[in-house]
Design a protein that fits this description.
- By secondary structure, the chain is of the alpha+beta class.
- It contains three helices and five strands; from the N terminus they run ββααβαββ.
- The radius of gyration is 15 Å and the shape is globular.
- The protein starts with 6 loop residues before the first strand and ends with a strand.
Length: about 110
């Protein structure tokens, strides 16, 4: 991928029983994920990747750590200053070795 190639920056708030649970911040290259729309984002991006674009994942690197809440966790997840947060950072690549996703999710 070129150094200045366009990428999607996707920020989603995930709810469980109408309560905020996860803030997800994702980057995906536009060249690999064309025509990404609000309708797709409101459903499953992975379903779109697998079923519509026929992309096969080759692997994932995932780092998981515990953290204290930042200002966004407090604002959007309703965490207080001592609420434990589980952070998951991941990189997903295709079976041909192309980086497809970088994401960081902050979970209550």
């Amino acid at each position: 991928m070129r150094e200045n190639a366009p990428v999607y920056e996707i920020i989603r708030l995930r709810l469980l029983n109408d309560e905020p649970l996860v803030i997800e911040h994702t980057y995906m290259p536009v060249s690999q994920v064309p025509a990404l729309s609000k309708r797709i984002l409101e459903g499953s991006i992975y379903s779109y990747l697998h079923k519509k674009l026929h992309i096969k994942f080759g692997g994932v690197f995932r780092r998981i750590k515990a953290d204290l809440p930042d200002k966004y966790d407090r604002q959007y997840l309703g965490a207080n200053e001592s609420t434990p947060i589980l952070e998951i950072e991941q990189i997903v690549w295709t079976n041909s070795g192309v980086n497809l996703e970088y994401s960081r999710s902050r979970n209550l």
